[in-house]
Every structure is written in C-alpha cells, then in structure tokens.
Amino acid sequence: MERAVAICMYGRSGSQLLASYLDGHNDLIMLPTNGGERIYQFFDRYRSLSLHDKLIAYPVFATHFFDGDFPIAPAHYYAAVNALFNVYGNRSLEFLESRRAFFQLLHVVYCVALGRRPASPRPVIVWALHFLNDQLARHFVEDFPQARFIHTVRDPITSFSRLFDRWFRDVGHQRGFLSAGYVTSHLTRADIAHPGMESRTRAIRFEDLHSSLEKTMRTVADWLGLTFQSSLLDSTLNGVPWTVQRGTISWSGVRPEQAIRDSRNISFTDRGLLFVVLNEDFVAWNYPCPTIFKYPLVRVLTFMLVLLIPMKMEMIEVYTLIKTLPSLRRKAFRYAINGLVQIFICRVAIMSLMAVELFRRLIFGKRVLELL
Known about the structure:
Layout: E1 4-9, H1 15-22, E2 28-30, H2 39-45, H3 51-62, H4 74-88, H5 93-96, H6 99-113, E3 124-130, H7 134-143, E4 148-153, H8 156-170, H9 179-187, E5 201-205, H10 206-211, H11 213-224, E6 236-237, E7 240-241, E8 244-246, E9 249-251, H12 268-277, H13 279-284, H14 296-306, H15 312-324, H16 332-364
C-alpha cells in the first residue's frame, strides 16, 4: 500500500466529519476518531517490541479501540493479528520491524477485524492526524513518499468562536485562564501546509461539507484517485452513523445551519482584528471580508486602533473568574491573583502573536492553504 492521505484541521473545522464521509469507501482503510494519532509516538517508545507485540499492545496505548461509540470486538482484533502473521510471518525481520510495516499492518488488522475487504489489494490509507505536527508529517512522508494531506478549514471568525468554546469548556479548568491565548496561537499558525509539503497539500471548507457535499466529495475523490461512490455521502465511522450532539439537538451528516458564521464569542472589534491579521485566509478561502482591508495602510491603522481592546474571549474568562470567587471563600484571594496573572499573560501573548503575524504577512507575505 503506497497511497496514503492524512487529514488535518484548522481549529474545529470538520476533520472528523471528513473522515466520517471517507469511512465507507471500499478502496480506503482507516482507524476512526483519534485511534491513529499516536502511532508514531507508540512506535518510538516501544521500538524493542516485536511487530506482533506492538500490534497486541497498541489498542491499550491508543485507547477507544474496544470501547466508546465505535468499538471493535477484541476477539476479532486479536484473531486478525494471528491471521496476519499466518500470511506475513515469514517476511524478513527488516520488513516486519520497520515503522512503515507497523503503520500499514495496524490498518490491515483493524480492517480485517471489522470484517471489511477493500475492493483493491492496495487501498488508500486514511490517517486521521487532526492536530498539526511537523515531525509526524515528516515521518509520514518518509514512510509513504506518495502521501498527501487534506486540511479542513473554516471561516476564521467561526473558528475562533467555536475553538474557544471547546478549549474553555473542556481544558480551560485544567490550564487556567489561557484559552483565548491558545486559540490565537493555534489559528495563526494552522492555516499553512507543513513545511515542504505544499505541493502535496490541499484544503476543503467545512461549510462546503454542509452546503455542497456531493460536489466537495467528488473533488476529494478525484484528487485521491478514487472512484466516486454514494457511500461518500454517508457520515459513518466503522459503518455506524456518526451523530453530533449540541445541547438538545443531534444530527448526522449534512446540516446547513452549521455553515452559518458563528460569532457568539467574537465582538465587533474582534472582527476587525481578524479581518486585518488573517486577511489572506478570508480571501484565499472565499469567506466574506470587507475589501478595504486589502490595503496595507488600512490594515496597520485598524490594527493600531483595536489591538489594545481585550477580545470578547478574554472578557468571558474575566467574567468566569469573578463569578467563581464567592464559592471559593478562603482560597478566593489566591485564586483571583493567579487568575488575573494568567489573564494578563494571555493578553500580552495575544497582542504579541497578532502583531508578529500581521507584520510578517505585510513584509514577507504568507502562502495559506490552497483549496481543492
């Protein structure tokens, strides 16, 4: 299997949604959700294990193979490992202990455990990488010289708003009041291809997965050299419909409301800041942006006017800090000081990140992800 594609994300931009549409194609094999994110980490940590033992141990290391919403049966997985060694066990030790073989055969075992048989003996491997990691991207291309990358992108305003929701809700309590800073850091650097991977990298828009799905998936299939199949319009993982839950609302697949710009955590001045700093992203990805911001002088002047104004995300963090204090009693003072220090650090970090990003773009330009 020489062909492989990695899926990466720009904030909460539908990388898992894209993977779910690829799930049912009969010339693709993949590990669902985040099952494959730690392949290289595991291999580097446990190089001394034989291939057989690596395949046996990886599900425990990666988690969610045998539980969660899309489990596979442990008995089927371990039986597939044994079946694989009946076929490949006499190969050379150099092949069996290679990083590439572990990557390939892990996907084969998973596919067999699911009871699937690809249409071709050399299907395309889909690696749901999600988070950007330059080192992992280099490993991937070393193992698969024909490898490609598909990044999912989303309206930057929506990306800031939704990613902040996720960070502040899920990890904000673990990392203090720094969520706005983490969001800014990620979204000002995740809009480009991995270094040296530009020619093998393309992007698709999250909104198009909800507003023009068939056209988008036909484009993806063509780029990957796949035959278009109706399964590419079904959102599944391990053959089970992938359902998204938002409060009391749940759905699977296309939902046109998801394509609407979401600015619940973005103020009017925040919009101006994002239009100024990320102008190339809005233009290249065809998202609405006032045309006046194409002029460098307008961008600089606007930037100087709005930079010192805290973002709405930061104000939400301050409000949460104040609201939490009464319930802490004796610890309130220490908690307040610690929270204020982190919020101040976050403010300085955002100002620095935005300033550096804008002037780097104005002076050197920036080649953002190219759409398919």
